[in-house]
Input
Amino acid sequence: MRTFLRDAILKGKATIAAPGTPTLEEVTKALGERARRRLGRSLSIREIDAGSCNGCELEIHAVSNPVYDIERFGLKFVASPRHADVLLITGPVTWNMREALVRTYNAAPEPKWVVAVGDCAANCGMFSGSSAVVGPLADVLPVDLHILGCPPEPIEIVKGLLALM
Amino acid sequence: MSGSRPLADLLAGRPPDADGYVRLEVDGATWDALAQGCAVGSHELSALWADEDQMRLALNDSEHGLRAIVSLRTEAGAYPSVARHHLPALRLERAMRDLYGTLPAGLADTRPWLDHGRWPGRESEERYAFLPVEGEGLHQIPVGPVHASIIEPGHFRFTANGETVVRLEQRLGYVHKGVERLFVGADIERGARLSGRISGDSTVAYAWAYARAVEAALDWQVPPRAVLLRGLMGELERMAHHVSDVGAICNDASVIAIHAQCSLQREDVLATSKACFGHRLMMDCIVPGGVDSDLSIDGAGRIRSLLARLAATRAEIQRVYDAMPSLQDRTVTTGVASPALVRQYAAGGFVGRAAGRAFDARKSFAYAPYDAASFEMKTRTSSDVDARLQVRLDEIAESIKIGNQLLDRLVPGRLVGERPAQRAGNGAALVEAFRGDVFMSVRLRPDGRLAHVHARDASWFQWPLLEAAIEGNIVADFPICNKSFNCSYSGHDL
Output
């Protein structure tokens, strides 16, 4: 344990180069500033999986890793919709998730923004036409922004949040 | 009751098809005897599904290297329930009943499973009846389907006595997308893309299993280079998840430093995958007949240096983990899945191997390129969170070995084998995903389109064990137990 702490101090910052590093820095900084200007504080994000294959979740997780680390700019994922400014929603909306999704949306206070992450949330992707799927997210909730990709890469998710602000 | 019948006895002398499976039709009595054979442990249940008027059962006997798919013609959907003898079939039979209206005679639990009473034309206001729990001082904690962190949806009903969990009952099916029906009538290419989205975290494994099943059905030859690249992709996917889940388990014990290091290492794997194969998760990179993306020119060097970094990270995490009693205090003896249950459910992956079940599809039913790779199947016996974590750390080391061997063997050549003429056929495959073996079965129509596809995730036989593993633990230890299993919702809900 002691050696671990010593290493943490002596070895300095552990990170690897992000793809197109200057872009990442610019994008996340601008996002943090705009969030503060618009909301007067940092931005709270609540993620909801409305039927995804979990590919989008993997990349949403990645925006919190030490390379992207969006929390350093005041963007944080919260556990409750009641604390959220932004609902980040993935997947084609399944009939089995529809009610839980709407209830979670209703639990988030105004003002709130809905961001549809991934091709499935935009147009059901490969699951288009399935009778188990209600449809794209916009059929169920008012969507403020779409971030496309299957799944969108972390940098695209960060850029999308910037566009929202 | 006629008594059980071992698979080895039934198959005596019958040659398997190209995919390693012996296919045969059986009558109700033999079906029932095979179900009892599962129950007494003479062979293992691998999958159970409905295909038009047939019920099919995939059975493994890894000790004798035998695999079979047995079919029983149903009588207007009715057939003798397998779960009546062998409980691990219970959720499979409930799911098939919901999806295809099959009628397993003697099924002990007839509550719907994937059908939540929400599908158009089948709406029902009937509430799901959770199993009754009686006793003084018990209280219930409903959790989900929307969970507190970035994970998939599912409902957990905890019954607790003070802090101690008396029973956990899961309710899944929230992300059911009707995958099997989407396959019907689709062409082979669309089927491949769909397979890669059954469970996004195992996209390589599913695309590979589907491709192997289609290739077996059509006798489609895969070029040597494509086989090696598939192996590399498979191991990259495995290492990315193992390393990030080890970090996530430590994170649930509040050791954030290990989590940070692991998620950094995961990002390194994903960035390398993108640089080498063009997609961070390597989605759609494996296609029937071969692979769709060649390793970039500098790719072999990139992967070799990634493997060296992974080895260093793995060693460092192992060193820190071993030297941190306060962390082990959270993992050792926590969430024990009894080895007897693990054997009964034939649980695959690290859940099985942490309980001494020596099964790994890469070894037990070896497929190329693993048949020529030298690596060890690592097992532990304590079957707790610690054992599952240690198995994963062990497996990272083995994957590094495999990765280097595959790079040594890499030859130039074609990426996709010549496509055979379209025809009807059957094929099945078992592929070791990071969380365990995934099974896929494909039936092709004479016009080359898909007649039926079935996918069975490793999670089907792991989710029920999580219910058992949490019993007697404190509610607050559920996240760490859950993470140590990391079952798929999407792969299970289909």
The radius of gyration of chain A is 17 Å. The CA atoms of residues 128 and 154 of chain A lie 24 Å apart. Helices of chain A lie at 2-10, 21-39, 55-62, 95-107, 119-123, 154-164.
